[in-house]
Amino acid sequence: MDLTMRYTLNDSTPHIVRQPQTVEEAAEALREAARSGWAVVPWGSGTHQGIGHTPARYDLALDLTRLSRVLRHRPANLTIRVEAGIRLAELNAMLAEHGQWLPLDPPFGDRATIGGILATGLSGPLRARYGSARDLLIGIRVALADGTLIQGGGEVVKNVAGYDLPKLFHGALGTLGVIVEAAFKLWPRPKAEATWVFGFPRAEDALSLTLSMLRHPGFPMAVEVLNARAWEALRAEMELPADPGARVWVLVRAGGWPAQVERIGRDAVAASSGARVKDRLPEETASTLWARVSSVAILPHPAPPGALGVRLGLLPAQLAEGAATLEALEEIPVLWRAHGTLGLIYAEGRGPMETLLRWAENLRSLALTRGGHFMILAGPESVKQALGLWAPLRPEVEVMRRVKAQLDPEGRLNPGRLGWA
Amino acid sequence: MKRARVLQELLEIFGPRGVLWEDHHLLLYEYDASIDKGRPDFVVFPTATEQVAAAVRIANRYGLPIVVRGAGTGLSGGAVADQGGLMIVTTRMRRILEIDPVNLRAVVQPGVVNIAVSQAAAAHGLYYAPDPSSQKACTIGGNIAENSGGPHCLAYGVTTNHVLGLEVVLPDGEVIEVGGAACDWPGYDLTGLIVGSEGTLGIVTKAVLRLMPVPEAVVTLLAVFDTVDQASEAVSAIIADGTIPGAIEMMDHTAIQAVESAKRCGYPMDAGAVLLIDVEGLPEGLEELARHIARLCEHFDAREVRIATDPAERERLWSGRKGAFGAMGRLAPSYYVQDGVVPRDQLPRVLRRIQEIGQRYGLTIANVFHAGDGNLHPLILFDERDPELTRRAVEAGAEIIRACVEAGGTLTGEHGVGLEKRDLMPLLFSPADLEAMARIKAAFNPENRLNPCKMFPSTKMCLETWSRRKARMTEPVRYRAAPPPAEMEEELWI
């Protein structure tokens, strides 16, 4: 197969593919692109290339997966610096030998590269305890559109010298520069952990549990909420509790010293009075489960036809409202999953396009009336065009546009990916 | 003429109680807690966002630089008006607009004092985690500008990890919102970019903060060592062991002398170094954890480890650390504090280097710092009335920063670059890095209206204006009852 076909995005195929082995080669590929006026799409493992609009121009696919070295691990400093193409799973396997980890579990985390995780800014359940990649990233090296290599931050856990460039490139979807290296603060693995599962008749009943976990001084590692369909999708793959009357499931993952883990579990059970199911999961089930949960209700790339993936950003207490709107249209079977203590809900719906559009419009207007935000994560370009990639579009977009124009004046990095840029 | 017109316009917006323009008043606003000075031409005290925007528009019309100031506790000169111009003081924007105890959010104006947020949240069992040592005075707006840290940032992160959204007045007077109470707003993370931008990108007029549950129990350990080396080895061991305490603070022998002579906190006077360690969270297993850390300290030859659980004893142990900077007055008339950070495993080496630098310059250096983060605070003792000593203190400071950078660290962990370290930025950043940052600045602040000449290596223009202003500031202050004559120093505004 022609190599370029592997990098097709929605019928758009690049003319050229570069697979640099070093940061310098990556920069050279960008200099070449600058000389030739090529539009560039940086690639990791491609798990989320569907986020954003299909690039308006696409000449060069810059595949960074061969930039996969660990540059410096300082175990006694709990920091690491890596090249961007390294896979998270590989990195964490290495760190496990030191009793450490980079506590990120984004969707498709078994394949995702560090650069891709940073560029998309998608998080997983562990976010509840450890923050997102944004909070763990302490340094970054980026190749700008003209091939200039720049760095921001460093390899120390506290640093206020210069603008916080790591924050700017995190979540920028590869539109401002190509992330080639990253430095993180690491965490020790918890001494002990355990997972409890609760099945509730309604989302409202689950709120007392999720909100009490939000203000729990033991900081649960994860508080993940799934609707019945999402739970069934997991149950198809592993042995999990079932209950026909449970419409909403909450997973609580506790970590720390054994006595702390038990205490969090006790408190979770006490806060789940309306639950029909209250179970502690066997250790092995829990570890299989957590490896899988963050990919539930997230569409793979390329998204299957007739499916739409969205994200709602609400407040933790608005979760039930979000759930009601998500499941309001009977003709749209919806899988949804939320970071219960953060108010972020991921959902995928399937159905005829006009109904999906109506579903998405309802979600968008819910987000807008509640002071939150809405974003399409995956789906047909036509829906993204019709609805806009995200809402609300506030006056800050003008500043974003100016930042983009300063760092990529020719608009050659992922052109059009963000719609307005 | 221009000056009189500016004053008139400012008076229309702010009234006579909201503007300062006379030299003897301006004098009070020519410094922060750093060693730099610079007198603004006007000071205004807005109470609302619209007033900030109006002041910004006036500054634009007359080409005045704008410097924003909170409580003036900054340690790098970020709020010093070295180019003159209009100073916007946020201390009258001090309303806590909302505490949301369910979603753990607070919405505040920028002049709210850091500790006031925690006090307002306390009734709900919540607090605002970043705790700069000046937290009883410093403002949230200043914290956001500097991305401030504090002892307990080891476990909970610095300011940027606790700011979810901002209302910002841009340098042209436009008001925008970035981020918000929800997480992960789509688009570029302008909130993350503005936090720590030292007032060069926009003026924060409102902030959405994340609150946290108050720990149910706290245990404080005081570990006493004969040498700094032993104490720093213990810090590395505690971190590497996989336990992240709430805080690990170190004080060396000189600091202990100062602290104990100011106030008896129970630190042994002959100790080479002490570590103050907080472990906190759930009471379950906490004492076990404290004993585990005590054993690690003992393994590195701690000669004594005290474990305090009752609040009064904990408070006493911490009072020495909290009053440490003030206690330096017992040893010397002035101190110059540095803020370099090194990888934690480099602490022993860099601390030895700092002592060596002190000896070479003939200066005493005390160390009181956030050891768990590798964030050093060498306090260089000198007498600012002696120009030669002052020169040596500044030079020794720069050399310490160089040593930190050479050890794989950074210029500043929480105090900011400001005026003080702007010319040291090239130690850390290449011309390309600085150019990229300049472009980002241009996207927000194309005319360099906001906090000019801060954070980035000084240009010729900055230095020229500065020296002219310095010359003017040494002139005696003339007391006047009426607005000043109109013909003064118009050309000084860049």
TrEMBL record, chain A:
Needed cofactors: FAD
Ranges of residues in domain FAD-binding PCMH-type: 9-189
Record key words, sorted: FAD, Flavoprotein, Oxidoreductase
Keyword Oxidoreductase in record: yes
A Pfam family: FAD_binding_4
InterPro entries: FAD-bd_oxidored_4_C (IPR004113), FAD-bd_PCMH (IPR016166), FAD-bd_PCMH-like_sf (IPR036318), FAD-bd_PCMH_sub2 (IPR016169), FAD-linked_Oxase-like_C (IPR016164), Oxid_FAD_bind_N (IPR006094), Vanillyl_alc_oxidase_C-sub2 (IPR016171)
Taxonomy, superkingdom: Bacteria
EC id: 1.-.-.-
PROSITE patterns assigned: FAD_PCMH
Molecular function GO labels: FAD binding; oxidoreductase activity
Protein name: Putative FAD-linked oxidoreductase
Lineage: Bacteria, Bacillati, Chloroflexota, Thermoflexia, Thermoflexales
UniProtKB/TrEMBL annotation, chain B:
Domain of life, source organism: Bacteria
GO molecular-function terms, A-Z: FAD binding; oxidoreductase activity
Keywords: FAD, Flavoprotein, Oxidoreductase
Required cofactor names: FAD
EC numbers: 1.-.-.-
Pfam families reported in the protein's UniProt record: FAD-oxidase_C (PF02913), FAD_binding_4 (PF01565)
Main enzyme class: oxidoreductase
Signal peptide positions on this chain: none
Residue ranges occupied by any FAD-binding PCMH-type domain in the UniProt entry: 36-214
Protein name: Putative FAD-linked oxidoreductase
Organism field: Candidatus Thermoflexus japonica
